[in-house]
Structure formats: C-alpha cells, structure tokens
Amino acid sequence: MKDYNSKGFIVKGNIDNEEVSKAVKEVFEWSSSLLFAFSICFFITVFTMFFTVSGKSMLPTLHDGDRLLISKFMYTPQKGDIITIDTNEKLKKNIIKRVIATPGDTFKIDYDKHEVYVNGQVLNEDYINEPTVSRGDGTIPSNKLITVPAEHVIVLGDNRNHSMDSRYEEIGFVSYNKIYGRAFIIHWPLNRLKFI
C-alpha cells in the first residue's frame, strides 16, 4: 500500500516483510558471514601465530612436530613462559625455549650440582628432562653471577643437555624485540591437545 503526502513517497513495511527481495536478504547474509570471517582472520593475524616444534630441545614438555598457538599481542615475558624467538639472523630459523630469568634478575648455573639459581634461589625445575650438565659453548661459565639487562631474558630448553639456548653465544641474552610471543596451547596432534 502506498501513500503520497507532502513528505514524499512512503513504502509501508519492515525488513521482515515478504515484499523485501530474497536477493537483498541473501546479500546481507553473505556480507555478514564474510565480515565475521574477516574479523576472525584479523584477530588471528594480529593477536596470535602458529608454530610447529622442530627437534627435541623442549622434551618432555613439547615434542617434535607439536603444533602450537602463540599469543603475541602486547606480550611481556614472564619467568616460566615458553616463548618463540626470532634467531633468523644467526641460526636461520625460529626457536622455542622457556624463560628462566627476566630483566634485573640475577642468574647463575652450578654445573657440578646441576642447579640453576635465579635471585639467589635454586629453581625447582620439575619440567626438565634431566639435570643440567651441558655447559653449552661456555657463554655462561659455572657459578658466574649474571644480571639480566633491561628488555632481555635468559632462556633454556627443557631438554637441558640437548638444547641450544642462552648458554650459547648465538642465543645469549634474548632481546624483547626478538620474541614473537608465548606458547599457550598445543592444538595438534589431537591426542596432545592441551594448554601449556
């Protein structure tokens, strides 16, 4: 029904009216779906990344081939976090390690006692594969007290004697700007699906 008055041409009805074209409804539904998909892709790209573990340096926590989801938005490293690191300039690959000490912390390793100290306290490392014996390339000598500089961390692998980490010159102190983010879930294989 159409009315003509001084305000102009008016069509009575609403969006649910049968007179509304099915094509318009379909376009609206497709647009909504595409917008939702774009939003999800944008969220994943900006806030997260995917990472596949290569090697055995993080056993028993992470296995070779584990696929992880990494949280990277506004991330500040914390002790105990498992992080992904850009070492492309030196090693031509990205690596994954555990944060052991953060800026301002004092750190040392007693290789004879197989103990790691942070701020004078022995770490209870129930996540490692075996006691710390390997001295790397000597970058961190036994019982040498080190203070972690600003915006850097010390990282070690959980498979302590088979890991290239801060005990090697190629890694050393890891700068914040080389950290992608924190691993928070193993999403593949499904039988290992869990938060970490």
Write up this protein.
The protein is α+β, with helices and mostly antiparallel strands and 196 residues long. It has two domains: 2-47; 49-195, Umud Fragment, subunit A. It is built from two helices and 14 strands. It has helices at 22-47, 88-91, and strands spanning 2-5, 8-11, 48-52, 67-71, 82-86, 94-101, 106-110, 115-118, 121-122, 146-147, 152-156, 174-175, 179-188, 194-195. The strands form three sheets. Strands 3, 4, 5, 6, 11, 12, 13 and 14 form an eight-stranded antiparallel sheet that branches. Strands 9-8-7-10 form a four-stranded antiparallel sheet, with no helix packed on it. A hairpin with a 2-residue loop joins strand 1 and strand 2. The radius of gyration is 27 Å and the shape is elongated.
Features:
alpha+beta, eight-stranded antiparallel β-sheet, 196 residues
Order of helices and strands: EEHEEEHEEEEEEEEE
Number of domains: 2
Top CATH class of the largest domain: Mainly Beta
- Provide the gyration radius in Å: 27 Å
Helix-strand makeup class? alpha+beta
| Unreliably modeled segments | none
Query: Average pLDDT across residues?
Result: 88
Outline of the structure:
The protein has helices at residues 22-47, 88-91, and strands spanning 2-5, 8-11, 48-52, 67-71, 82-86, 94-101, 106-110, 115-118, 121-122, 146-147, 152-156, 174-175, 179-188, 194-195. The protein is of the alpha+beta class.
